[in-house]
Amino acid sequence: HNIQITPAGGVRVLDFGVARASFDGRETHSTIGMLTGTPGYMAPEQITGGLIDARTDLYSLGVILFECLTGRPLWRAGSFTELFSKQLQHDAPSLGEQGVDAPRELIELVDKLLARDPASRPSSAEPVRQSLEILAFQGSADRRSPTAGAPSPATPQPVQADPMQPLKQVGLLMFGIFGFLALIAALALSLRGRDDEAPKAEQAASSSSEAPKASGERSFAASLTAPKLPKELAKALEVLATSDKRSERTDAAEKILAHDGPTPLHADLAARLELAKGCEAKKLRVAEFGLLGDPRGLPALERLAAVPRDACNGDDCYGCLRDELAAVMKSLAARG
After folding, report:
1. Residue 45 in contact with residue 213, Cβ under 8 Å?
2. How many CA atoms lie within 13 A of 84 on its CB side?
3. In terms of residue numbers, what domain contains 200?
């Protein structure tokens, strides 16, 4: 909603929201519990708490370009779980397979921007800007009026261009995108003096690396205060939060997923967290809880945090997600 097309066909950025500039090219870890963004536009590494840099933003630009050119979302999903699973397990649909009437160079550029692996994307925005500028001027040249020496149609009919049909206005779109990138660059220059504040904020957000002690019964009581929680779902959530028997928790999770009727998203995620196999799969569910921001997800996370660090023959079964789990729990507790 922050990027809109004007009646004249231009592109306007309405709100930079939580934009933050970085000028030294360093990479940084995203903090799962503090993720800020729109699901579907965030890069895979941003979802999983991996290293993020300029290539992360270029992925988001690729999503915007794809949607501008096709008129439909890049990913179609009914929930955060399905959306993130598609992003992390499948390559993005190729723009060239969408029936888009666009230059081959533009199609190839968008496909590169949407690569799952950051190493396969352009390393910075500069080559992307240059490519879009070239495409914009090529599109402008293609639409120029005939020269004086060239034959013209006998009775030309006026045609009203529709700026809301991107497939017919690729050159116009490129001009808008080029202006959008220039606006981003201007913002970065204006925020140069604030660059030193970012590392301090990131350090404060990730200062706690230890998960708090589990208190499923305590947090579960709060989760029941939300209205219209079906009785069978409430019971299943209680089992997930309090039962020491894995078989009981598995049955409860399956009942939640099989529930006939609307299921609150925090309940759906709690069930999928329980059924997820392995540390990386559970880490994805933890990330989804962080994005959802619902304190009612705390009991499921506290259950996970309570697993001993030596439960796997002396090793930590969930060592890959401990820090992210602590950050998400801290964030949700603050909202509760």
Report:
1. no
2. 25
3. 3-142+164-205
